[in-house]
Write a structure and sequence with these properties.
- About 35% of the residues lie in helices and about 35% in strands.
- The protein is of the alpha+beta class.
- It has five domains: about 55 residues, no CATH class; about 80 residues, Beta Barrel (conserved putative lor/sdh protein from methanococcus maripaludis s2 fold); about 50 residues, no CATH class; about 110 residues; about 90 residues, Elongation Factor Tu (Ef-tu), domain 3 (Beta Barrel), CATH 2.40.30.170.
- The strands form five sheets. The protein has a six-stranded antiparallel barrel.
- Helix 1 packs antiparallel against helix 3, helix 4 packs antiparallel against helix 5 and helix 4 runs antiparallel to helix 6.
């Protein structure tokens, strides 16, 4: 009653303020009214607004919450991981040369298919041939020196053996004569010293399998000379630059007349790739790599495919991670995806998008991700029937970017075409009244 009385008093006061007054008062106050008309009009507007607010507050309970809904249905859902990366050939080889020799012939160009061992370029071999000749002479000299020393060693060893035999025989005779007084102690000592010197001389010879050989230093000279000769011969062979694999010449970074060891921006002379089977090199975040496995199917798309896609699969996952770069502390794991479509328009050197199929579920209950309600005792979705909320406990399964698989729990059930709230509140409870937005 007191609230009604206050409302009535407010209404009367408003009417009094809005009352225009008598004609006599108007004449007396015309000038003042002219000056204060704007102030009074504004005050009246404020009073009206306050009146409306108070009236609305004095009415019944707050309006029901409006919710959006979608009918529940079954469907297929996939969880995918999307990563960008370059398309490359399965084998890629950089062909380089360390020879400072002029390129005199180059029988291939970019785009040519080549076989392993096929000549890609020919270098001027004049100077290198001279180096081979010098190395050959050095080797021949080292061999000659060794042979000479070998002969000297054999002859010297034979002479030393004979000298040792003679010295021993002389010592034996001197010892016998010494016993009979035929030689003096001095002569005996001299014979013994000669024998010991012969034995020492024998020990100075380098023996292998009981046979004398030249000093090791001469053998080392041959070894060094042979190594240098082989190196020079290898350089001579390398004046014919050959393809190490079957593939396609995808880059040529030099031309006839330039030196082989001087290319544009120090790039390889040639890049050869096997383009029969293409691969993608991608980096998977350390936070997602646990979901990726060898053999998982991949859908590959690129601008060059004009909206189409080609299949692939994960074929290699690096056992170690590396820095992501860009100042990030995140680590990434290099991963290889093989493209299983040789007839597509994909080419090496472009960037493509790989969608790795992480998980999937067929013919299952699917709702928008926004439908999930997280409460202390678990996850829920909310259904509306006749304007009343029904809370349904669920477990989640496969999740895509916008949808999620839900499995009812605690003996709850789901039915086709149940109206599921897509914009629920965390305060929803069973039995709460809501208003469903049309549309």
């Amino acid at each position: 009653m007191e609230e009604i009385k206050k409302t009535e008093e407010f209404d009367k006061e408003l009417e009094r303020l809005m009352e225009p007054g008598t004609s006599e008062k108007k004449k007396k106050t015309r000038k003042k009214w002219s000056r204060k008309r704007k102030i009074l009009t504004g005050a009246a507007a404020v009073v009206i607004v306050l009146f409306i607010v108070i009236k609305s507050m004095s009415k019944g309970p707050a309006a029901q919450a409006f919710v959006s809904t979608v009918p529940l249905s079954r469907g297929d859902i996939e969880e995918q991981l999307q990563v960008n990366g370059p398309v490359e050939g399965t084998d890629s080889v950089d062909v380089v040369s360390n020879l400072h020799a002029e390129i005199v012939e180059m029988p291939v160009k970019e785009g040519d298919k080549v076989k392993e061992g096929q000549i890609l370029a020919i270098l001027d071999r004049t100077d290198i041939q001279k180096e081979v000749d010098i190395a050959q002479n050095s080797y021949d000299l080292a061999v000659a020196n060794y042979n000479e020393q070998q002969i000297l060693a054999e002859n010297g060893y034979a002479n030393a053996l004979q000298a040792l035999k003679d010295a021993r025989d002389n010592y034996t005779r001197s010892a016998a004569l010494f016993q009979s007084g035929g030689v003096s102690q001095v002569d005996l000592d001299a014979a013994k010293a000669a024998m010991e010197e012969s034995e020492r001389q024998i020990r100075t010879y380098n023996l292998k399998d009981g046979k004398p050989v030249a000093d090791d230093s001469y053998a080392l000279q041959i070894k060094n000379a042979e190594f240098e000769l082989d190196r020079k011969k290898k350089n001579l062979e390398d004046t014919e630059i050959k393809s190490p694999i079957d593939g396609t010449v995808v880059r040529v970074n030099t031309k006839v007349g330039r030196f082989a060891d001087t290319t544009e921006d120090d790039k390889p002379i040639f890049i050869i790739e096997n383009l029969e089977v293409l691969e993608m090199k991608i980096n998977i975040s350390e936070y997602s790599i646990g979901k990726v496995q060898i053999g998982q199917p991949v859908e590959i798309s690129a601008d060059i495919l004009n909206g189409e896609s080609v299949p692939g699969e994960v074929v290699k996952i690096s056992p170690t991670g590396e820095e992501k770069g860009g100042g990030s502390t995140e680590r990434v794991i290099p991963t290889t995806v093989r493209i299983n479509d040789n007839n597509s328009r994909l080419i090496a050197g472009i960037t493509a998008k790989a969608q790795i199929l992480i998980n999937e579920s067929k013919d299952t209950w699917v709702v928008p991700v926004t439908s999930l309600i997280q409460k202390e005792d678990g996850t829920y979705i909310s259904a509306v029937k006749n304007g009343i909320i029904q809370m349904i406990p669920v477990e989640t399964g496969v999740e895509s970017d916008i949808q999620v698989e839900v499995i009812p729990k605690d003996e709850a059930s789901l039915e086709e075409n149940m109206m599921i709230v897509t914009n629920p509140s965390g305060n929803f409870e069973d039995g709460m009244a809501v208003a469903v937005m049309p549309g």
